[in-house]
Write a structure and sequence with these properties.
Blueprint (H helix, E strand, L loop, with lengths): L1 E6 L4 E6 L5 H7 L17 E6 L2 E3 L11 E3 L3 E3 L3 E5 L2
Parallel strand pairs: 1-7
Antiparallel strand pairs: 1-2, 3-5, 3-7, 4-6
């Protein structure tokens, strides 16, 4: 079980991820509105700042990501994570 803390201008919520879904799929299942487009790591619309923790990519992302950023559409937490939406 990994704790996922999601921050944006509308919410600051903590969830516990029990499944092997991507971070985006998991947040959507919790009713969180997350920005996305491609769902396969090519567009970067789901980019979030990784405040702490670590993730693994289920698909190698093609979109540019800076150090300290993740794509929620193709990542899964490997530890507790705290992320902030860019939007």
């Amino acid at each position: 079980m990994k704790a996922v803390t999601y921050n944006n201008v509308l919410c600051d919520e903590k969830f516990t991820q029990h499944s092997d879904q991507t971070t985006l799929e998991y947040l959507e299942a919790q009713g969180v509105k997350v920005n996305y487009h491609c769902r396969d790591g090519t567009c970067g619309a789901c980019r979030c700042k990784l405040n702490y923790g670590s993730v693994v990519y289920t698909i190698e992302p093609l979109a540019y990501i800076r150090d300290g950023e993740i794509l929620t559409c193709c990542s899964q937490p490997t530890s507790d994570i705290d992320i902030t939406s860019q939007y």
